[in-house]
UniProtKB/TrEMBL annotation:
Coiled coil: none annotated. Belongs to the LemA family. Keywords: Membrane, Transmembrane, Transmembrane helix. It comes from Nitrosospira multiformis. InterPro entries: LemA-like_dom_sf, MamQ_LemA. It is found in: Membrane. It is a single-pass membrane protein. It holds the Pfam family LemA. The keyword Zinc does not apply. This is LemA protein.
Amino acid sequence: MSPHQRRLMPSSLAICCLIPIYNQWISEKPLWIMLLESSPELDRRFLKPNSFRKNAMHNLLLSLTLLLTLTLSGCGYNTLQSTDEQIKAGWSEVLNQYQRRADLVPNLVNVVKGFAAQEKDVLLGVTNARSKVGSIQATPELINNPEAFARFQSAQGELSGALSRLLVVAENYPQLKSDANFRELQAQLEGTENRITVARNRYIKAVQEYNVVVRSFPSNLTAMVFGFQVKPGFTVENEKEISSAPKVDFSTPSPAK
């Protein structure tokens, strides 16, 4: 649902709710109208059906629309809006950090290839995993599509696994580990992995808070009316990976004494 449609929803909902109320109201003549009709000295202009009912309907709609707007916050609308914005901000940061990691992969592969060209399978695995990540269009709307979100998550998991295997191979090449370019990539990759973990944890927390509101009464009714749906989170299978950043350590081991 677009922001423009959401702005129109309170008025539309108010009209839908008020029509049956108004129909019942005009079908039963209130006491004060009976008093007006029994008093000849009162101005009969107010009793003309068209003008009177038109003015009454207008005032009633204004009053109840205002009341409905004020009570929306009590039904969770404001909370839904704020938590939805937190999810969007959190997901945007997750995408940014994943992209930073993907940008490091070509340089990392090239450096490793210069010292360990024979590790073709490992290098090819990293390259293919990065290509798979790049083939998925990572957009803010991804979190609104559980299937696409799962594919994106799976691709990122494959890249994490491929990078881990590459780092294990790097341990077998002392010259590679002591290379200045490789050590610079160490610092960048380690920092990126840490930022990915922080961003994912923030996203998870925002999704949990939002989904609780979407599923709870009476805010679940508000969510249904305004089109707020449950957002996907990271799967249980990756819970351990999400809770802690992958260990990235290219430091040269201390010589044995």
